[in-house]
Every structure is written in structure tokens, then in C-alpha cells.
Amino acid sequence: MIQNEPMAIPFPQRGKLPLHGISWRRWQARRRTGGLARAHQSLGVVVVLGLLLAAAPWSKAVAADTALTAPAAATAEAPSGAVVGGKPGGNPLHGLAMHGEPAEAPGFEHFKYVNPDAPKGGQVRIGVAGSFDNLNPLIVKGNAVAGMREYVFETLLARSLDEPFSLYGLIAQSVEMPEDRREITFNIDPRAKFSDGHPITADDVIFSWRLLRDKGRPNHRAYYAKVTSADRISDHAVRFVFDASGDREMPLILGLMPVLPQHAIDAATYDQTTLTPLIGSGPYRVARVDAGRAIVYERNRDYWGADLPVNRGRFNFDEVRFEYYRDVAAMFEAFKTGAIDVWNEEDPARWADGYDIPAVAEGRIVKTELDIGLPAGMAALVFNTRRDVFADPAVRRALIELFDFEWLNRNLYHGLYKRTESYFERSSLSAHGRTADATEHALLEPFAGSVRPDVLEGRHAFPTSDGSGQDRGNLRRAFDMLKKAGYTLDGRTLVHSATRRPLAFEFLATSTAQERLLGGFVATLSRLGIAARIRVVDSAQYQSRVTTYDFDMIQATWPSSLSPGNEQIFRWDSRMAATDGTYNWAGVANPAADAMIAAMLAAKDRATFVSATRALDRVLVSGDYVIPLFHLPKQWVAYWRRISPPERTPLFGYSIDTWWHNRAR
After folding, report:
1. Is the dihedral of CA 74, 78, 81, 86 positive or negative?
2. How many CA atoms lie within 13 A of 648 on its CB side?
3. Are 493 and 486 a contacting pair, CB within 8 Å?
4. Degrees, nearest 5: CA angle 580-258-300
5. Distance from the first to the final alpha carbon of the chain
6. Are 136 and 274 in contact, with CB atoms under 8 Å apart?
7. 250 contact partners, CB below 8 Å, separation of at least 6
8. Which residues, other chains included, contact 412 with Cβ-Cβ below 8 Å and sequence gap of 6+?
9. Which end of the chain is flanked by fewer CB atoms within 10 Å, N or C?
10. Angle between helices 405-412 and 512-526 (to 10 degrees)
11. How crowded is residue 88: how many other Cβ atoms within 10 Å of its Cβ?
12. DSSP 8-state class, residue 69
């Protein structure tokens, strides 16, 4: 699911390899409803929401199959904050899950991973590398500021960070849904209101759907186009009917739709960037904006949803401040001096050697390792297959052969990384090491040749080396592949024998940390006469070029949840390859991938869903669209002792919106 998972990151705004800081699950999966899991954008990812939202900053779950419908009378008796549904003639259900039943019992008081008695008050300061020129994260244009999705905008339902994909009541206090999931009715909490006091009505919900469908980001446009009708039942009830695609995730996707104030938005100019503070219904309001440098959110003491079960123990700081820094090195120095409160570390070298400072020795900074239950996702060097130089899979496969992970991990990262072998690494959704089952074979049968035999049989592994940085065996195998692809040496330059064009390309980067990662690879490529160079640009230019796919190769990360779904369209669907602003940076246009995503979305039980996801994994691995990099075994977090986390870390990893300031006591 895209809306509440860590957001894919195409550039290292956050730090070293995959992440550095606190990523957005909105972007948390460019998240969506709940707090920030990490807001530092780093070289490759956001490990949670997070943001986050992504999601992203930061956004996009689960267990067996549940069908919900409820008589209208039942919804009126629902406890505040519950999501109600029920099979005809059965008891109301209190939550909505992608597969199976939600974990929280009816009438639950708060999520188990929060401290319901956490004190309110104080400030938390979060670092972000780069800059921003736009306060609206829901449009394509501009470089959006951190935090809007997490703190200002709210969704119809709220996601639990301790379950693969379950939602509970927020703006909508209940839902009604038939067993086939072809429609869903949201019953709006009559108390729900925007920060300016205007009540939230069905008109706002329908307005938001239409606006994001027509002028939102490509992922919103694609998802919300599956709605065939939106009916205003009353001031506080709206029904959405879906098309015949059979996408069983759509009710949850709509549940995570941001609700925007119709009275405060000019639809005609909505797709333009803005630095004017926006109005939402969330727990915070924009207090101050220092364009490109900082944004401060202040807790809304009149927040309508403060006592909902999904919000208790969350949103504890009076102020949340995002400070922007020119690069990650400067941002880390700011953390060490106390200008930033929390740091999500993804640089093994820094984790091993960078914390030898008095604040750590004296216990003023806490350095901890946290378990995380999410799949590691895919951090990689991405081939833009739209470019002629990478159109031939044999060329891509040869370059994969030349990447020396063992040397890189030992010499740059203290041997602390693990090689990524799957797009759903570190989870049961991964096809790595597993033979395809009967369901996978049936799904892949119409696409003969789309999956290599070794991948189908679970024997595939990415190349290993002797760690010398000059493995002759890998060089020889790569050269043989390139010769079969039509390349030959002309002096010391590798050229295509027919066109005489040199094999040359450019890495687009935006930090010195990337230069260090790529430098050794460039040197290895030169030994075979391949002319690769690194071009470092500022974050604004980088974002602009990535949005329009104006690059040969970049470093990127696609985070993963335990319930991947519609976000896979945004990443791999053929239609997205020709649409600016998507996460299909590789330009994947593969009918087999399209079909596997459709099978995932149509799955009615967990077993079929897992098989479809593994089949997609096999198609992507066989396509050689990326050079997989590596991932961390745990979540590394350092924080100043003036703030505190709850005792329990949820499945998605830590979420800063569940922390509190100790002085607030």
C-alpha cells in the first residue's frame, strides 16, 4: 500500500546510503496519517513512513481476507473513533484490514506502542538535507517541505504502525463496505473540523477526491481514477464506487486520502507551488516559514481529534521544527552540537566511528539499535532504460557483474551492510532462495521468458567478488557479456562495433557521499574502457531532472511494506514509465510486471497475495533494471536525552510523533 509506507527516495537528500534522519511515512509512506518515522532524506530511502509519505521526507499491508458491511443503524452506536463494518446479519466490525482482521479489539483505547500518559509540551527539532520551495506535498511541482502530510493534513482513516495494513477511525468514525469491496461508505465524525473551525463535510471529501484525481501527484491520479462515482449521502456520509478492475486495496487507499478544505482552496491554481501556509484538520498548524531553510509547526490546542483512540499518546510536542541544511555532513555536526534532537543513522562508517564525542560518553546522547519489522526494500543504482545506452539488458547485466559489493562494504562501511537480493528483502514476500510455487507458475505462464530459469528456481544470487576491487573473473565475465552485446575495444575505449559509439554514461548525484560510493565503481568500469562519470548538482536541479527522467543513472531507494499494493503501479507499471513525476525511474515497461501487480491487487487471500508478490519480485530481478546495493540489519537511532521514546517500538520502526519532551513534565 502506498499511502502509509515509507516513501521512495530518488536522491540522497537525507544522507548517506539509504537514509539519514527521521524519514516521513507519508511519505510513511509520503505517510499519510500517523507520525514521522524519519524526516531526513538520504541517499536512498526512507526506511519507514513513513512518509512518508512514504511515503516519502517520507510515504507505501497484511493478514487473511475481511469483508465488511454494516447496517446504517449499527454505525450510530459505534464507539468514538471505531471503524464499523459487518457482514449482512452479523456483528459490526471495528477495523478494516487488507487481509484478515485488524489486531486492535473493539473499543480499544490507544495503540499499544504509545505511552497514553506522555506529557505534552516542549519542542523537537528535526534535520533535513537540502531545501524547499513549496508547502504543498500533494502536487508534482516544486520541492515540498517536510511534515505537512504528517502534521497538518489528515486522512479519513488512520493506520496502525504495528500491523501490515490495518486502518482505524479518524475523520471517518465508521465505514460500510460489501463483501466484494466494490464500494465503501465513509461516515464522517460530526466533531471533525479544520483548524480554522470549519466543519468537515462530505462535500470536502468529494472535493478532495476530485482535486487530487485531476491535479494531484501521478499516484493519486492513478488510484483515484478507479472511482467511478462519488455520492453525497448526507452532510456526514459519502459513498465511493469502484471500477471493475477488482482492486481490493482501493477501499483502504481511499481511507488514506487526505481531506482538504474546499472553502480554503482555489482549484484553478492548486497545482502551482506555494509558500502560503495551508489549512488542514490535523494536530498541528504552520506557525512560521523561513523559505528554503526552516518550517515550524505548532500544536493546535483546539485539535478536534486529540482524544481519539488512534491519537492518544501521539503528537506530544508543542512545536515540531524542521531545519534544512546544505548537506548531510553539516546536518550531523548540528546534531552533535544539540541543534537537532534525533538522528536516524544509515552510515555504518559514521555509526562505528562518528560518535566519539563527550555527549555520548556522558550519556546526554543515547545511541541505540532498534528492531524493525518492515522489509528492507530495494536501494540501488538505477538504470534509466529509456536511454539507448541501457536499452540492452545484456549491457545492464554486465555492469551488475562489475559492481564489487564486497570491496565496498569492507572498505567504506565496516562490513556492516548486507547485500540486497530482492525488492522485498528481509521478508516472506521475497522470492530470493525460494522456488516458484504453482500459483506463481500459473501467473507467469502467459509471459514466457519474462523470468530467467535461475530466478524461477530460487537459485539466483547477485555476483560476488574476492573483495580486491580487481576481481579478474568478474571483469572477464562482464567483458564477454559486452562482446555478445556488440561491443569491442577500440584502443582503450569500448565502442559498439556497428555504431562506433563509446559505451559512456553519467551518474547524476547530489552529495559528496555519493561520489565516494560511486568512485570505486567508475574506476572499475574504466578498466574495461567504459567511460562513466559523476555529475554532482544541487538538490533543486537534481529533483527537477529526476522528475522528468533526465539522467542516465541515479541512486535511489524503493522502501517496502508488508502489504505492497497500489504503490507498485507508481513504481513499475508501463503507464508510469511515460509519466513525469513517478517512481518508475528505471522506465520499466514490462507487461509481465503489469500483470503481477494486477494479481497482487486482486488477491483475496494471503497465500495468493504472497505468490503474486514473489512473482513480481522475480520479474523485476530478471529485468536487470538496477544494480542492487545493500541494507542495514537494524534501525540505528541516536537522540538527545531531553526527549524520550515510548518503551515499545512498533513494527514500522520508531515514530517521532509518539515521543515527548522530558521538560514537559
Report:
1. negative
2. 11
3. no
4. 130
5. 38
6. yes
7. 181, 184, 223, 226, 227, 242, 566
8. 349, 516, 517
9. C
10. 140
11. 10
12. -
Cell numbers representing residue 439 in the block: 500459483
Amino acid at 395: V
Distance CA(345)–CA(24), nearest Å, equals: 15
For the sheet with 284-290, list strands across it: 123-129, 319-325, 294-299, 284-290
Alpha helices in 405-550 (DSSP H): 405-412, 438-444, 453-456, 472-484, 512-526, 539-547
CB burial of residue 548 (10 Å; 0-12, 13-18, 19+): exposed
How far is residue 620's CA from residue 432's CA, in Å, rounded to a whole number? 12
Pick from 336, 295, 297: nearest CA to 317: 297
The residues, ordered by sequence, that sit 6+ positions from 595 with a Cβ below 8 Å of its Cβ are 443, 446, 447
In terms of DSSP bridges, do strands 378-383 and 660-661 run parallel, antiparallel, or are they unpaired? unpaired
Closest CA to 186 of 237, 250, 252: 237
Give the separation between CA 86 and CA 294, rounded to whole angstroms.
46
pLDDT at 664: 62
Please provide the average confidence, as pLDDT, over all residues in the chain: 86
Q: Name the nearest CA neighbour of 324 among 133, 153, 148.
A: 133
Spatial distance between the Cα atoms of 168 and 85, rounded to a whole number of angstroms: 11
- The C-alpha atoms of residue 28 and residue 23 are separated, in whole angstroms, by 8
Per-residue pLDDT for 28 more than 70? no
In this predicted model, what pLDDT tens digit does every residue of 194-213 receive, in sequence order?
999 999 999 999 999 999 99
* Count of CA atoms in the C-beta half-sphere (13 A) of 371: 7
Q: Which pLDDT value is given to residue 93?
A: 54
How many Å is the maximal CA-CA distance in the chain? 81
Please identify which residue in the block is written with the cell numbers 553519467: 506
Grid cell digits, residue 366:
543515547
- Return the CA Rg of the chain: 24
